[in-house]
Amino acid sequence: MLPLLTSADIRKADEYTISHEPVASIDLMERAARAFVGWFLNHFPDKQKAIAVYCGTGNNGGDGLAIARMLHQHQYKNIYVTITRFSDKASADFTENLTRLQHTDVPFKEVNSAAEVTAENCPIIIDALLGSGLNKPLDGEYKHFVEYLNSVDATVVAIDVPTGFFAEGAIEQDAVVLKADLVITFQQPKINFLLPEASHYINCCEVVNIGLDEEFTRSLDSPYQYIEEKDIRKLLKPRKRFTNKGTYGHALIIAGEEKTMGAALLSSAGSAYAGAGLTSACIPASGLTALNSYLPELMAVIRDGNSLPDIKWDKYNSIAIGPGLGTGENALELLSEVLTNYKRPIVIDADGLNLIAINSVLFGNIPQGSILTPHMKEFDRLFGEHTSWWDRLQTARKQAEERYIYIILKNDYTITATPQGKLYFNSTSNAAMATGGMGDVLTGILASLLAQGYSSEDACLIGVYIHGKAGDELALPNRMNVVLPGKLAQQLPLTMSKLTV
Ligand SMILES: NC(=O)C1=CN([C@@H]2O[C@H](COP(=O)(O)OP(=O)(O)OC[C@H]3O[C@@H](n4cnc5c(N)ncnc54)[C@H](O)[C@@H]3O)[C@@H](O)[C@H]2O)[C@@H](O)CC1
Ligand SMILES: [K+]
Question: Which segments constitute the YjeF N-terminal domain (predicted)?
């Protein structure tokens, strides 16, 4: 698990590392610059290409100066440094690196206003104006300068954080940011890099390690954590000898209407392929033939017309409700029945969530430890409109804590908010998975893992990870443009077995 720190905590980790490793602050900057250059050399090997390095006068600018010096040492022939003296302040490490640069023959100039900047005609721009020290939206000279640079046709490589981009906190919709083709960031992705707003400003991000003290960063107990494969390997249990279908539980999936039976099929398939011993689908009678022909391993509990099915609640180790269920009277009654009769954690998705959004009194009946799996729109219907993902994260965290539920907020980096106040960012999945029915499969996987005896938290972390991982295994090596949910469900047994060897 990689703790994702806020800028303030990164500063603490810098300070701790400086005093405990120990390493001088200027040497830590040198290490950061070297890590950047190591990556840059491999990806921009043409040493004749002109590179403009724009440096502010803080530590991000200091990095820029050190990087310009190192690239020069690596025989990059055309480096042009511009220092923006838009304020009188300069950090000590910036000043030291300016002295070091002056001992080379790299040309540099200083400008006091954006108007003084002349076009460099460099195909590569290194952005070292402002980094994680940003404390207000860009205005004045920085704003003008960044607007000008955004109009230049060049590949922009940002050091640590693109100028004007807040590493955490709500991002204004009209924020002025120096748009980066690539960000080479230090130690960890910044939290906002993992939220959809980043897509407007950052095309690609690479993380380079600068050796901040890991024990210390863990001890900060950040609410934001990034889940890695090794975490899932620790949680996922291999199937054992001398077990039978009873060992792996019975999941009930309440889903589908006549015209949305696909949702029921896909979530039931997700449950079966993720390893539930038994999966029953509670579906309308009109869907029975489809169910039997799609996957004969599934069992049916029939919903006939307006009468509610007679569900034997004790039979089921877990229940998921919602995909394709509709929001009519019957669906509402069914959801109310589940919430009244079933006391173990359940999974609520899609129309299950929409029903709760319309009938908020139901919120109080959700069993503790239940898992809600909204996408952005469902989330806002449940908890109110949000204008930024950062705010959505804070709401998810607060709601999960107050209601003792797990909220899986679906996204590129799907985030699980827990009752303990943690926000876990998932590291798998890809754009080929952006297709209808994908969330239904996830719902089935979660119900399956609960049925198999995993805790709600482990079910969320494993479920989201393997869902994305199966999609990655299918799409990435084969460069597939789209992965269909049914195929993804079939991949799950292989994905899971690879994670348990
Ligand atoms: N020891 C460290 O702290 C390390 C820091 N590193 C670099 O240092 C950067 C952070 O450096 P700093 O904290 O000096 O901050 P920055 O270099 O990001 O910004 C410099 C200063 O600009 C001012 N400023 C902030 N927002 C502004 C705005 N909107 N308009 C005008 N001025 C503004 C602030 O006074 C800020 O301190 C990181 O992003 C990274 O690149 C790396 O060298 C690794 C080690
Ligand atoms: K920068």
Answer: 10-218
Q: Is 32 in the pocket of ligand 1 (CB under 6 A)?
A: yes
CA-angle at 123, arms to 119 and 125, nearest 5°: 75
Domain span at residue 254 reads: 229-498
Tell whether 137 and 43 lie within a shared domain: yes
Q: What is the mean pLDDT of residues 81-87?
A: 96
Residues 201, 257, single domain; the answer is: no
388 burial via Cβ count (<10 Å: 0-12, 13-18, 19+): middle
284 and 200 within one domain: no
Which whole number is the average pLDDT over 81-105? 97
pTM confidence score: 0.96
Q: Are 348 and 484 in the same domain?
A: yes
294 is in an annotated binding site: no
Query: From CA 191, how far away is CA 389, in angstroms rounded?
Result: 11
User: In this structure, are 391 and 481 located in the same domain?
Assistant: yes
- CATH number where 163 lies: 3.40.50.10260
Q: Is 181 annotated as a binding residue?
A: no
Neighbours of ion ligand 2 (CB under 5 A): 60, 127, 131, 158-159, 163
- Orientation of helix 376-383 relative to helix 389-403, angle to 10°: 60
Total structural domains in the chain? Answer: 2
User: Phi and psi for 281 in degrees, rounded to 5?
Assistant: -115, 125
C-alpha span between 110 and 116 (Å, rounded):
9
Residue 4's pLDDT band, with cuts at 50, 70 and 90, is very high
Q: Is the CB of 128 inside a 6 Å radius of any atom of ligand 1?
A: no
Q: How far is the CA of 46 from the centre of ligand 2 (A)?
A: 22
